[in-house]
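#lab-general

N.A. 3:47 PM
ok so I finally got the sequence cleaned up, no stray characters, all 436 residues accounted for. can someone with queue access submit it? mine expired

B.Y. 3:52 PM
send it over

N.A. 3:53 PM
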Amino acid sequence: MKLKQKLAILADAAKYDASCASSGTVKRDSSNGSGVGSTSGGMGICHSYAPDGRCISLLKVLLTNFCIYDCSYCINRASSPIERARFSAEEVVNLTLDFYKRNYIEGLFLSSGIIQSSDYTMEQLVRVAKTLRVKHDFRGYIHLKTIPDASPELLRAAGIYADRLSINIELPSKRALQELAPEKNPKTIHQSMGTLQDHINEAKEHKADKEIGSRRKKKAKFDYSPAGQSTQLIVGADPSTDAKILTLSHGLYQRYKMRRVYYSAFSPIPHSDQQLPSMPPPLMREHRLYQADWLLRFYGFNVNEITPIGNSTSADANQSNTNQPEAHQMLDLDIDPKLAWAIRNRDLFPVNINTASKEMILRIPGVGVRGCEKILQARQFRRLRIGDLSRCGLSAKKVGPFIETADYNPHNKLLTAADLKAHFMQPKQAQQLSLF
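B.Y. 4:20 PM
back already:
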């Protein structure tokens, strides 16, 4: 099979993995004339975003779409009647270098189906990254999808050469994982995540010790997975509620210091298992989960606040046989989760933006982190009035019902209206997705 044909097959097969990002790593470049590639500044090329907001391109491919596993939700499962292809490690290395030198990409995202064994597959992935780093002095971004069942030695080696590692949980329910992906063991996945985090922490501690012990620190050429680790959850392939999904995500952030949890709406595939839904979930559900995830990570919310009943430790047992999630554990698809929380807790509003704490200002619908900082800075010099909102980059329509200013109090207006939710809803044909 020709290389171009392999690339077409394996790049298309990689599109289902959403956990592809390139933020948070160390800065490397080849501006001094040595090495290839940097972390600053067609087929298989996907777009991601750097910490400074730049859109950058990565070569996103599978090493192979052959797989000995038969996960029901996966297009590349063993029983799937699809065209198969396989790269050699050297072919992936050459593609990465050729694409970079043509200015097509700035890094590599590499995953794979499981072939022969977990250790054999992981060894091939590590071989690609090691060859790029050691033999070709490649200094661009590398993200490796790791295999949970691989040996600890291979997992450790992967982080030496990759900027970010990821292990996909895929399904939030242990029961669904057992039914739809029987070869995967949730316990092994969590153990591997813990192993990766231990190595990341060890590298950070070693680096800190070197800096304390020497005035002139010598920076290591490559850190251990400096961009951390991430994972992906498929939304809508099983009956798990949004409360269940967010509870799991919150636990991953707390236990393994996960850099990101990615949410991917289930996409029905040809010749799929009858246990799987015949229709995909609303794409808006994926969007609302990302918004809720943001509230967990940066706004001080907990799962119980975001979903009316979020304490879903026994969610598997609570799921009905009709495969329909509990309605009261789901996010509102019509409005963003912060606004939904505010409407359920009107007794906490209006918030006086001239005297309220930072934590409470962050909970006002329509106020983001930057908007909050601008309010805190501006009120040091004067009492803010309703006309000052636009100067802080805020929309009076969004925040107005929930705030008090020196000249404005909505308590007897929109805040007590029975149709407050309708005030914020846009006609469907004009609806615009927003993070908050």
